[in-house]
Amino acid sequence: MTQLTHIRGEHLSTALAVAARNVPVLPLRAGKVPFGNCPRCDRNACGGRPNMKTPGPCTCPAPCHGWAAATTNPDVLTSSAWASAWRHAAAVAYHPGGAGLTVVDLDNPDAITWARETLPATRTVPTTRGEHWIYQGAMASANKVRPGVDIKSTMAYARWLGPGTGPLTALPDAVRALVVKAPAPVRSTAVTVPAPAGSGTCPHRTPTYLNRGIAMAEQRITEAAGAVHNTVFATFLAVLSTHGRCGCLTEAHTARLFAAAQAKGESARHCADAWTNALTKLGM
Length: 284
Known about the structure:
- The protein is α+β, with helices and mostly antiparallel strands.
- Strands 4, 5, 6, 7, 8 and 10 form a 6-stranded mixed beta sheet that branches. The chain has a 4-stranded antiparallel beta sheet with strand order 2-1-3-9, with helices on one face.
- It starts with a helix and ends with a helix.
């Protein structure tokens, strides 16, 4: 057995050991990238989205669709369909989100210093240029959330570099907030429609009433298990129908709603469109 063959055999052994911990794994080729899609799925012919972010209905047994190929099934990992990938593998990767984890990838000393000053301590794994900080809990992935910092969790993979040291800490809000972009300016973030004639003092200007309404709207969006687009629009519509005709909503209230929607994966553009559509539907 050559040294190279031995190393590649170790990659499979490592993958099996990691999978036994219920962490989905996959082989990486040189350059820390997944193996190419199988011929059946070439150019996403099976219906997956570009960049392998959302796999289609492919059921081929070969490593396919990047992160979505990750598995904990030892029969798949050792199958003949995967044999070629392991023979040419340069490393092992895993799908953090599939294991209920989030990796904060710190790519340089400055990023590590920032993390130590900002984030709660958690399990740490040394990398070639920095460190992986691993938290218990999954979230959306994003690159370049700040200089030298990437977030790898759902729909992403991270290179397996060992189990790390230190206990796992629950995913903090400070990490979740890194992928929430500031809402883009919209045509009407502050609703200034006059109160109906003869209505007197606006009853919605009571801080407790308004803040409770905004908090309930945030919760409704945050707890959406599916159909996020529809939930966001319906929530915006409900907020505007209750609070929109008296001029009590401010940019701060709108920003809170947009932030909750973006935390669920909505873009700033989608938020703006949903808000505008709700205004239109209500004749505002």
